[in-house]
């Protein structure tokens, strides 16, 4: 019995390992020319092994459609058909953006040519060099042509695995615009530049004469860039489709050292397809100190407890786990402007729970509890809860104020005085009438 | 004694008195019926619906009061108004109206009459107009007699100047306030006449009710002290005045401070200082009288006089000093605009932008009061004849109210009661003179007949009246053409000429009385016409006529509000110009940015700025205020002139008051200084959000033909404006209301203009990377 259950457990964990790891669904549409389909078998088989269901479609095929009844039909879309100038009618830059607003993740490879995808890239604040100018580098010295470049993985990266071997790259670089949603994954080497591979030397000479003006060069350029869109969807732009190819995956960087392309492709796909660095807010509550039920409105100067529960996606087990690792989470209590902005620290001993107690401002109005956590590489966390902050009720003020004693004294003395006066008046009246009687 | 026509002589005085009393009751109930009935045009022509703008808030507040009880209402914080500032309704509202409806509602339900709260609200104003007629009767009775009272009641019952604010459905504070005003004045006059603390207290209680019901209570707060002051200056200080004023002021002020919205204003603002000052003055004068009655020394009295003057001066200096230091709040802008009609336009455009705060046009006096406006001066002059204390009151009231009615259209309402009273006094004097059967005798002055005239139910105690007439005759000073004219209405002048003045025969009588009754008949016709045609429109529902003459209802407002109610989430914030705030809250039940309770000028200016600036400037404002929908009123298709483009300059002006660098009014005019919306419109105008929202896709409606704005009578440009930050969500049948949805931020972080251009398939210009290093030279 015991052995059976351990076996079952083992089997379960195995199946979970094999099953889809994305938090977002496991259907993938791959748009690739049929002839090139087998160039990426390592990458595609890796995805399949993880449990993704890959559907292939040539760029000019009409089916399967990517959007059916206004609902995206796939959770992820890979576009490796970078060379093709024409796509089927339903794949346009506009429809791809539409897909992203529906939550679909994109993995797109660019080419040197001017394609619909290069105009889409500019919508993502990626700035491409003129057509036909791939990234070239003459360092380090090697037998390969200058446009096939080994690029060292960054020392620390949010997306890539640590200690990655250099990655073979061939394609166009891109400069990054000022869009804060861009996440550079792999930068071009410092000594590389974009130029026509035949006239690379001439381009350098020209640029030198102009003092470096107009040369697409240096480590500011990126060859692989992630994009975290507002709705939660992710997109990754890679400068050349060869990076994912079997050829580069097998190619050795130096004697006996295999290139990091396989792992790089794996990491990029993991990030793009919402496996890694995926956070979510499970719930938020607010209540008065020493109570538990949330109120629709609070009184000014109340002490309010705000609690958020945050989970991170664990691709190993395909489950959401409470996550207490965020150290710079903030809570804003906002009416037009944040009236209170305070750290929202994790509660020790309660995983995934973040809580703060604060005193509401002395200002009535409609306030919002706002969590707005946007960090590069991570899913954006946004939560907004509206509550009203009202002035105290008519009987909610202190009843007797020591400062009001002059008024109390005034009221009491007037009352007493009136009483005495009335008494004296009545008494005087009776005496007078007695006197009057006596006089009579 | 000669008589112009025979009178029954075998009636006992008791019978006459009883009959007169019965006729009075019948007449008063008929007047009440007429007053109520003529106000029901709105319900019959349209439906039982709350009118206009402010009543919608009152109605909403009343519903809260009826469903949740008074204390919840008192503590009601409305998070949906003035989003996100919210409104402390309990502390910023005059609760009298809602409390009245709530009491009636609970009373009816206690009697197992399950009347809908809406019907109570709709019919409250007509009901109270009947009470106003009664209060005016009581008030005028104190001025002259019962016959004048009945005339005054009939006048106020149907006069358009009052009906304009009290038709069924016009559920506003004025609906009950005019009754309270008249009844407070009646109690005050009664208290003054009798020196009665009871009536003084009653006046105070109704004053409290008035304070709780209408901001116009300040009129009473200043009228009664002014009356007191004038009486003191006329040397008419009496202990009756002292008792009446003191009891009114002390109880009235203390109770008025219980209204949360008023709070400590009665002791801290300039508007209320006159009442306090006169109260102090009365104490001093009373003290002087006391001392004078006990001390005989002339020197001491002089000393006392000097001391009093010094004390008065010191008080005035202290008042000015305190105002200067800020302990007493200075006059509010609304009051400055009462003295200087140009003030508001210069400094507080938000007050000037309200049409009912504009100076009154001359024709509206005739429209609202008809022949009463001609009788009004006569009645006031007649008050000078006897000039009893209460007549002084009417004279002051007439002068003040005439001035205010000239300054502000809405204050016509306060003028109307005194016009009715004065006109009734004049008219009943005329009738008294000409209906009276007595003819002047030779030699001695006429004694009026002992019997009342049957045709006129009013002249009850004729002996009393004749005394009055004598007094009037005695009071009139000869040598003035006007007084001569007036004196002619009095039967005789005592011992003046050998041949007595007077009216002989029945023909002269019939001529004058026939004329007078014709005037009354025309008055009734005019009132009915004005009520049914001018003052009974709910303005929520518009009426037009089909070519065949049948009525066509234009119901765009409710269509739009119900669309909002049915199709948007409950928390969707709607931005519109403040005029429509109460209606959106009442009918669509959605949070609004600004509404007709214009307490926060900056917030209104923010909306004005959003409406009058370009999309790029407006969008951050919209997002910051969580605006989900923007609502504009557009009358260009139908020719509805009260639309937002016509109000647009006020939005610009109000925004300019807060952001003079960013919004400038001249930019919205053509170089020739014209306000245009066609091809020649200024670029600022064309780029403003309001213009774009109004004319978005308007020219498409004409299918390439000439698109005409029927309000401005200008041609709209063929190529209409484009909108990037807004999506058209709903446009009503006649395009009067247009609703736009505010777009969310672009998911790729682009600005919406380029995102929109991309979605339409426009190519973006190639951009170059930002050079981060300086070229080496």
From TrEMBL, chain A:
Topology in membrane: Single-pass type I membrane protein
Cellular compartment(s): Endoplasmic reticulum membrane; Membrane
Molecular function via GO: transferase activity
Assigned keywords, A-Z: Endoplasmic reticulum, Membrane, Signal, Transferase, Transmembrane, Transmembrane helix
Gene Ontology CC annotations of this record: oligosaccharyltransferase complex
Xref: InterPro entries: DDOST_48_kDa_subunit (IPR005013), OST48_MD (IPR055459), OST48_N (IPR055457)
Pathway in which this enzyme or protein is active: Protein modification; protein glycosylation
Residue stretches making up the OST48 middle domain: 286-427
Subcellular location, principal: endoplasmic reticulum
Recorded family membership: Belongs to the DDOST 48 kDa subunit family.
Protein name: Dolichyl-diphosphooligosaccharide--protein glycosyltransferase subunit WBP1
Source species of the chain: Mycena maculata
UniProtKB/TrEMBL annotation, chain B:
Signal peptide start and end residues: none
Any one GO MF annotation of this record: metal ion binding
Region of interest called Disordered, as start-end residue ranges on this chain: 441-475, 758-777
Gene Ontology process terms (BP): post-translational protein modification; protein N-linked glycosylation via asparagine
Record field: transmembrane: 21-44, 88-108, 120-140, 146-163, 175-191, 241-261, 273-291, 303-324, 365-384, 391-409
Biased composition (Low complexity): 448-463
All copies of domain Oligosaccharyl transferase STT3 N-terminal, residue ranges: 23-422
Protein name, entry field: Dolichyl-diphosphooligosaccharide--protein glycosyltransferase subunit STT3
Organism annotation: Mycena maculata
């Amino acid at each position: 019995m015991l052995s059976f259950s351990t076996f079952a457990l083992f089997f379960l964990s195995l199946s979970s390992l094999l099953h889809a790891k994305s938090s977002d669904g496991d259907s993938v549409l791959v748009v690739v020319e049929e002839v090139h389909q087998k160039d990426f078998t390592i990458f595609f088989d890796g995805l399949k092994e993880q449990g993704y269901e890959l559907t292939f479609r040539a760029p000019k095929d009409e089916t399967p459609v990517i959007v059916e009844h206004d609902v995206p039909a796939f959770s992820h879309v890979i576009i490796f058909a970078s060379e093709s100038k024409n796509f089927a009618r339903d794949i346009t830059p506009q429809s791809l953006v539409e897909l992203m607003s529906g939550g679909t993740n994109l993995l797109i490879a660019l080419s040197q040519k001017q394609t619909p995808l290069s105009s889409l890239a500019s919508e993502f604040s990626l700035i491409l060099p003129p057509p036909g100018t791939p990234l070239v580098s003459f360092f380090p010295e090697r037998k390969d042509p200058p446009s096939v470049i080994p690029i060292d993985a960054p020392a620390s990266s949010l997306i890539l695995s640590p200690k990655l071997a250099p990655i073979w790259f061939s394609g166009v670089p891109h400069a990054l615009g000022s869009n804060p949603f861009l996440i550079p994954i792999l930068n071009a080497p410092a000594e590389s530049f974009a130029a026509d591979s035949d006239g690379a030397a001439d381009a350098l000479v020209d640029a030198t004469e102009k003092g470096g003006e107009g040369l697409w060069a240096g480590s500011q350029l990126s060859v692989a860039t992630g994009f975290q869109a507002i709705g939660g969807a992710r997109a990754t732009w890679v400068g050349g489709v060869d990076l994912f190819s079997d050829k580069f995956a097998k190619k050795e960087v130096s004697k006996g050292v295999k290139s990091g392309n396989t792992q790089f492709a794996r990491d990029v796909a993991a990030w793009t397809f919402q496996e890694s660095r995926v956070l979510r807010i499970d719930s938020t509550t607010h209540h008065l100190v020493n109570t538990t039920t949330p109120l629709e409105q609070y009184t000014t100067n109340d002490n309010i407890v705000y609690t958020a529960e945050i989970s991170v996606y664990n691709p190993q087990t395909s489950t959401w786990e409470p996550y207490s690792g965020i150290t710079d989470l903030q809570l804003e209590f906002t009416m037009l402007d944040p009236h209170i902005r305070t750290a929202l620290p994790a509660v020790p001993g309660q995983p995934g729970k973040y809580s703060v107690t604060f005193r509401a401002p002395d200002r009535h109005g409609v306030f919002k509890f706002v969590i707005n956590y946007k960090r590069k590489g991570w899913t954006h966390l946004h939560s907004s809860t509206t509550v009203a902050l009202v002035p105290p009720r008519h009987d909610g003020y202190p009843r007797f104020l020591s400062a009001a004693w002059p008024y109390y004294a005034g009221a009491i003395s007037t009352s007493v005085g009136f009483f005495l006066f009335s008494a004296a008046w009545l008494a005087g009246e009776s005496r007078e009438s007695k006197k009057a009687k006596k006089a009579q | 004694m000669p008589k112009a026509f025979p009178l029954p002589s075998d009636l006992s005085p008791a019978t006459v008195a009883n009959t007169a009393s019965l006729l009075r009751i019948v007449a008063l109930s008929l007047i009440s019926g007429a007053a109520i009935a003529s106000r029901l045009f709105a319900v019959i022509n349209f439906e039982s619906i709350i009118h206009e703008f402010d009543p919608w808030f009152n109605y909403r507040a009343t519903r809260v009061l009826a469903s949740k009880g008074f204390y919840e209402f008192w503590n009601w914080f409305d998070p949906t108004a003035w989003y996100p500032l919210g409104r402390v309704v309990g502390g910023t509202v005059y609760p009298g109206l809602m409390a009245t409806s709530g009491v009636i509602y609970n009373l009816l339900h206690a009697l197992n009459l399950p009347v809908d709260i809406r019907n109570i609200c709709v019919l409250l104003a007509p009901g109270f107009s009947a009470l106003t007629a009664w209060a005016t009767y009581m008030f005028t009775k104190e001025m002259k007699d019962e016959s004048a009272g009945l005339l005054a009641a009939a006048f106020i019952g149907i006069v358009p100047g009052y009906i304009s604010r009290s038709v069924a459905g016009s559920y506003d504070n004025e609906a009950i306030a005019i009754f309270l005003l008249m009844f407070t004045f009646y109690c005050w006059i009664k208290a003054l006449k009798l020196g009665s603390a009871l009536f003084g207290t009653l006046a105070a209680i109704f004053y409290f009710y008035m304070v709780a019901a209408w901001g116009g209570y300040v009129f009473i707060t200043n009228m009664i002290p002014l009356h007191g002051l004038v009486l003191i200056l006329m040397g008419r200080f009496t202990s009756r005045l002292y008792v009446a004023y003191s009891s009114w002021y002390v109880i009235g002020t203390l109770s008025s401070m219980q209204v949360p919205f008023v709070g400590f204003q009665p002791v801290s603002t300039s508007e209320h200082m006159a009442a306090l000052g006169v109260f102090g003055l009365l104490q001093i004068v009373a003290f002087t009288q006391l001392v004078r009655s006990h001390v005989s020394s002339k020197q001491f009295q002089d000393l006392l006089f000097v001391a009093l003057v010094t004390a008065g001066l010191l008080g005035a200096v202290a008042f000015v000093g305190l105002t200067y230091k800020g302990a007493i709040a200075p006059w509010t802008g609304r009051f400055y605009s009462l003295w200087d009609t140009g003030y508001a336009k210069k400094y507080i455009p938000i007050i000037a932008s309200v049409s009912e705060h504009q100076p009154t046009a001359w024709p509206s006096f005739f429209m609202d009061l008809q022949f009463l406006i001609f009788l009004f001066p006569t009645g006031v002059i007649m008050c000078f004849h006897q000039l009893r204390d209460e007549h002084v009151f009417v004279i002051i009231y007439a002068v003040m109210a005439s001035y205010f009615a000239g300054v502000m259209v809405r204050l016509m309402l306060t003028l109307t009661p005194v016009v009715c009273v004065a006109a009734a006094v004049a008219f009943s004097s005329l009738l008294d003179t000409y209906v009276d059967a007595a003819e002047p005798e030779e030699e001695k002055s006429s004694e009026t007949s002992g019997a009342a005239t049957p045709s006129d139910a009013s002249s009850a105690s004729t002996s009393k009246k004749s005394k009055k007439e004598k007094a009037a005759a005695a009071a009139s000073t000869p040598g003035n053409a006007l007084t001569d004219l007036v004196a002619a209405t009095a039967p005789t002048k005592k011992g003046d000429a050998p041949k007595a003045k007077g009216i002989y025969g029945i023909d002269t009588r019939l001529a004058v009385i026939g004329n007078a009754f014709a005037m009354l008949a025309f008055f009734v016709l005019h009132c009915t016409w004005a009520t049914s045609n001018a003052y009974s429109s709910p303005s929520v529902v518009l009426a037009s006529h089909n070519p065949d003459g049948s009525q066509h209802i234009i119901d765009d407002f409710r269509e739009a509000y119900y669309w909002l109610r049915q199709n948007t989430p409950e928390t969707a914030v709607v931005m519109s110009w403040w005029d429509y705030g109460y209606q959106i809250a009442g009918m669509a039940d959605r949070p609004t940015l600004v509404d007709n309770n214009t307490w926060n000028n900056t917030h209104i200016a923010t909306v004005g700025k959003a409406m009058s600036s370009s999309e790029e400037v407006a969008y951050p404002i919209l997002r910051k205020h969580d605006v989900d929908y923007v609502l504009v009123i557009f009358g260009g298709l139908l020719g509805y002139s009260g639309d937002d483009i016509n109000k647009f300059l006020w939005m610009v002006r109000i925004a300019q008051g807060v952001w003079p660098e960013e919004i400038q009014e001249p930019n919205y005019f053509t170089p020739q200084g014209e306000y245009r919306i066609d091809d020649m419109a200024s670029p600022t105008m064309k780029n403003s959000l309001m213009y774009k929202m109004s004319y978005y896709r308007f020219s498409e409606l004409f299918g390439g033909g000439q698109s005409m704005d029927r309000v401005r009578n200008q041609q709209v440009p063929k190529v209409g404006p484009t909108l990037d930050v807004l999506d058209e969500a709903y446009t009503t049948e006649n395009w009067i209301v247009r609703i736009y949805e505010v777009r969310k931020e672009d998911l790729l972080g682009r600005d919406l203009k380029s995102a929109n251009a991309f979605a339409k398939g426009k190519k973006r210009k190639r951009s170059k990377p930002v050079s981060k290093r300086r070229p080496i030279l």
